[in-house]
Protein 1
Amino acid sequence: MDRQPFEILAPAGNAEMLKAAVFAGASSVYLGLTGFNARRSAGNFTPQELAQAVAFCHARGVLVNVTLNTLCYDSELPALQNAISAVAAAGADAVIVQDLAAAALIKRTAPGLALHGSTQMSVTNLAGAKQLAAMGFSRVILARELTEGE
């Protein structure tokens, strides 16, 4: 999908919030797949709902970023791989991650998915952003602790 010169990125905790964000003019949304995301208090989306959400958004020119931004333990990696496969099958545009093992698994499982570094990675400087770029990340969401000037 074509990128606009600016982006209005909105959270979407459930299908109703997704529609509100799109109809209000969001050019991209971020949402959680059930499990493996820091937005556990949000409604989140099942794999089937995610596919419907992506189709809805893409029909209106809106990009979809899926949060898989929790820390992952070895025992969780098979389930995470299934989640990544579901995200790729749904046609999402990017995945927001915190865990480097998750990023590596995404690159192996769904190399076409763009990687975005989550704010939970606590990147606070240019060197950190360049390191993530070297690792295949196309976007870094900087640490919340930074001031606007920083």
Protein 2
Amino acid sequence: NRMRANRLTSILVADDDKLVRMTLRKILESAGYALLEAKDGGEAVEMYRKRKPDLVIVDIVMPVKDGVRTFLELRGLDGKAKIIAMSAGARNGKIDYLSLTKRIGANGILAKPFNRASVLALVGQVLAGEKGP
């Protein structure tokens, strides 16, 4: 486990919005995390398989494969995966995606818009094994 100690904690951000990925990259890299990016759910699952990041932040509303399906696939690959669900207007039609994701076992919920402090606090909590909001 010694090698792991000097490896940066890696976080995979899956969001179809480039600006959101760039913003999270800035926030997280400035705090010393290594960042991986995926622009959709399929890419996120593939990257998780190859790289086994310490944490995944997944946008719930994405084209191709939405966040809920992505979430379930990641959980299928690794039951202990640490996953934060993220969404803007979480109420898409009648479904409140964030509470749905919470029910299926997200480790934390990040609502957009977010700020640096809220992102880092939640990421720190989840990595430490605590449940986020």
Protein 3
Amino acid sequence: MDLRLARHGETEWNVQKWIQGGTDIPLNENGVQQAGQLADRLLAEGFRPARVYASPMRRALDTARIVSDALQAECIPSPGLEEINFGLWEGLTWDQVQERYPADFRQWYGNRRYQRPPQGESYQDLLERMLPVLSEIVQREGGPDASCHVLVVAHSASVMSLLSWMHDTPFSEMVSRYRTQNGQTVMLDAQRFLPPFT
């Protein structure tokens, strides 16, 4: 199975560097273009999924719809793939978070895999809801050894969390090692999405 995870196209909050998290922000004009460019790249590579799975959030689902239309694939919203919820930090920049929530930020920064922002989720929470969904997708498409293409459109934290988990990388290094651009794809090892998840 050729399993790929794509980050959604750009939003205005990406441009302003505001924390989006669970806030449902649409693509901006550039984001729409990036989704089209993603579809063009996949077509040029001969990547032909029968279905494109996506986070139900608008920025991911609209990206997936643009790609699926171009690839003539079915687009399937998949609850559980939504971006991590950053709670009270959403709508702020990271500098503002450090100014307004210094103690909470220090705790989170030192143990971000398990520490939750105020009223938000940890990266472990994100993994625990995403992994069963990805497992279901892999099994629905015929299992890891199936000869098929599978595209999942999600979010930045999804990419960084999954790659950190897959490669046993400290979550403190996720941004420096696994940060992806809007509209970028990464390869996933479908074998890792068979339970039990370790």
